[in-house]
UniProtKB/TrEMBL annotation:
Stored PANTHER family: OUTER MEMBRANE EFFLUX PROTEIN, OUTER MEMBRANE PROTEIN TOLC
Organism: Glacieibacterium arshaanense
Protein name: Type I secretion protein TolC
Organism lineage string: Bacteria, Pseudomonadati, Pseudomonadota, Alphaproteobacteria, Sphingomonadales
Principal subcellular localization: membrane
Domain of life of the source: Bacteria
Secretion signal span: 1-30
Keywords: Cell outer membrane, Membrane, Signal, Transmembrane, Transmembrane beta strand, Transport
One GO MF term: efflux transmembrane transporter activity
Amino acid sequence: MNSEIARRIATRTLPLAMIALALGGTPLRADTLAAALASAYETNPELQAQRAVTRQVDETVPQALSGYRPGVGATVGYKANGDNFNEAGQVFTAGGTITQPLYTGGQTKAAVSASENLVLASRAQLRAAENTVMVSVVTAYANVLALERVVELTKNQVKVLSRELQASKDRFEVGDLTRTDVAQSEARLARSQSQLIAAQGTLTLARESYRRVVGRLPVDLEPLPPLPTLPGTPAQAVDIADRNNPSLIAARFNEAAARYTVRQLEGQRLPSVAASAGLGYANYTGAGGVVPNGDYFTQNIGVSATVPLYQAGAVGSVIRQAQEVRSQRLEQITATERVVVETTTNSYSNVQTARATIQSAEVGVKANTLALEGVKQENQVGSRTLLDVLNAEQELLTVQVDLVQAKRDEYVASYQLLASMGLAEATVLGAPVTPYDSTANGKRVRGIWSDWATNPNPAAQPLPQPVAASQSVSDFVPVPVAPR
């Protein structure tokens, strides 16, 4: 087996398993793919962080709705008047005002619409994050199984070559083989042992990648379950992706939010109307006749209109800026559509390629198995050399590893195709999880009027030493290696 085979699996393993996991609780025992998916769904910090982002965006709706609601304020004051620190009068005041917007040029309505579309976009982005995490779990799971099989095949190759080396030495002792034959056996065994070490190292990397995704090291993984049903043609897959890909859905909602933001800013050029009412109280003591001592009450009510005439060009600039943001969002829709078509088509092609490779590799395994047996028998009668046997064994191992790799590729490509169609979600894949309701928080906070309704703050995390921000504080000092 060539060490490039192990590296080839590793290069497909690591880039796709970039999701970390480690927040509290005991993760599920990930001995099946469904359990691994459930563990990542419930504890993966990248997914948890995206859920927090969605809840952040939920708050933009009540913030926008506050433009419809009244504002209430109160003031309290105390003032002592004097000459050369001689008390000449004391004044205590208190008052309250309430202001109710009546017309804001459509700004509030547009702001609410923009916020609602941003919320929908964030929910779609959460779906995209979930699809990514689920594909990462499948990839990590399939990689561990594939590399375990590669290590098993390579170990078996080492055992076979060890026996053949001993047999070569025995035949050399009786003069049946030359020293060259023995050296060839030794060289091939040493190469196989080196490849076993490389394969075991690559498996270690895959296991650690699995832990980052799922939250625990893989233990006794069950074989992969049968693949889900896939579309029959690339066109069908692309059609589903166009309607269901979460990244594309998010791009469309983001464009709608940008459109409403333009309308909101355009409202700054229109008049605004507000009603207000106030109540005041003042108490004068020792005023020396300037104001009679006593209690005084005042009240007022009124309506005011503000008509912007000239705002130094600031509003026009802000509107033009928002219009360009919307232009950007429109182009991002097109760009995302192209990426979705490309990703979906490529994933579909990868599935078909892997399936064809599996068929070819299965034929190759059967043919190379028969060829190896034939070469061994011919070697025993002297018509084949020991090198021919070693080469036949290497060819069999190579095609066996190719078959393992092709099966892994088919599985991963299938789930990548599902993700591009927005169907690689935990509940769709049948993982035993309680679905996270991304709409619940938005419904809860939408009607909250109170300024004191907040969430508990998380506990403070321990901080590193301040000096660590500017220099290393490690006790370990690497010693330079002396040149040989």
